[in-house]
Amino acid sequence: MKYVVVAGGSGGHIYPALSIINKIKSEDKKSDILYIGTSTKMEKDIVPKAGIPFKGLDIEGLDRHRLFHNISVFKKYRKGYKEALDILREFKPDIVIGVGGYITLPVLNAAYKLGIPSIIHEQNSIPGLSNKLLTKKVKKICVSLPGSVKYFPEEKCVYTGNPRSEEIINVKKMSKSKFGFDDNKKLVIFVMGSLGSITMTNKIKELIPAFKNKNYQVLVITGKNYIDNYKDVLVPENVKLLSYCDNLINLMKDSDLMVSRAGASTIAEVTSIGLPTILVPSPYVTHNHQMVNAKELEDAGAAIVVSEEEFGVNKIINTIDKLFDDNKYYESIHENSLKLGIKDSSSRIYDVIKKVIGENNG
């Protein structure tokens, strides 16, 4: 079978797409897969590095603040749509799978025009604009969170979870000692999204010296754009800085606490292994969907939510200390997190893919 997978813009879309691709490859040994993404974002480097054939389109998302700029956005959309038609005509896929980002809109519209069946996967609790616009044109809609179901037609919607959950279950644990940490001490990982955040960088810079003399260890993943911002910080011996971590999900399986944004992929990963997490939702995303994502976990007793505004030295240090000092509290969050995790999400999505292809061929 031939598959086109479409996703782009951020790790929250790219990594679930790669998880789906890995599942397809494991189930369909003769699969022929093409990834279509934007030509300017992260996927242009990440996907070819993973050994997956890649086609890039010059597409931008709508700019809600610069309305006149959207004239060029629409021009790029029309050009990208025509290019997508050409790519799909040449490749002749059996199905097109959209995994998020504005790149999905022209490609899945092109698939609809050509009569190629498609599905989409929505990672967040509140759907993005592209997925809303594509609802009528796709065969099935896979969702990560139960709260998303109400936004889509019941007959099309399938609750699959996020494919990153199955990915982290299956990866090999990487010992914290491989990163220079003591295996006998607890490890806290700070990561504020695949791209990092200047606001959180400034807050974490203030926080780092407060970890001195703590009996746990800290890894701060700064984001590639912000590692230089930490040059003037006095970093204690029990703290390490990395700009990026290729093996993050491997290391998460040997860590004790995560402090992170509340993106859908992160939530899928931590609930899959029950990793206690302090979620700091990004307030800069559409519909404030990260706060909605995070509240679903907090309401279930599966995570602690700290707003970006609340995030400060005393708040974070006290929260970490309480978690590590109260084993019963820590274990309750671990158990509640595990209850929310879906461990076979990639398999569920692959079942949907097979069903749609089968119905189309039948």
Q: What features would you describe in this structure?
A:
The chain has 362 residues and is an alpha/beta fold. It contains 13 helices and 13 strands. It has helices at residues 11-27, 43-49, 70-91, 104-113, 129-134, 164-170, 198-207, 248-252, 264-273, 289-299, 313-325, 327-340, 345-361; strands spanning 2-6, 32-38, 54-57, 95-98, 118-122, 140-143, 157-159, 187-191, 217-221, 239-242, 257-260, 277-279, 304-305. The chain has a seven-stranded parallel sheet with strand order 3-2-1-4-5-6-7, sandwiched between helices. Helix 3 (70-91) crosses helix 4 (104-113). It is globular, with a radius of gyration of 21 Å.
Q: Can you tag this structure with a few keywords?
A:
single chain, about 350 residues, alpha/beta, seven-stranded parallel sheet, 13 helices, about 40% helix, globular
**Average residue-wise pLDDT:** 91
SSE series: EHEHEHEHEHEEHEHEEHEHEHEHHH
Strand arrangement, largest sheet? 3-2-1-4-5-6-7
Number of strands: 13
Number of helices: 13
Helix content: 40-55%
How far apart are the first and last residues' alpha carbons, in Å?
A: 15 Å
Protein structure class: alpha/beta
| Unreliable runs | none
The main pleated sheet reads as: 7 strands, parallel
Beta-strand portion reads 15-25%
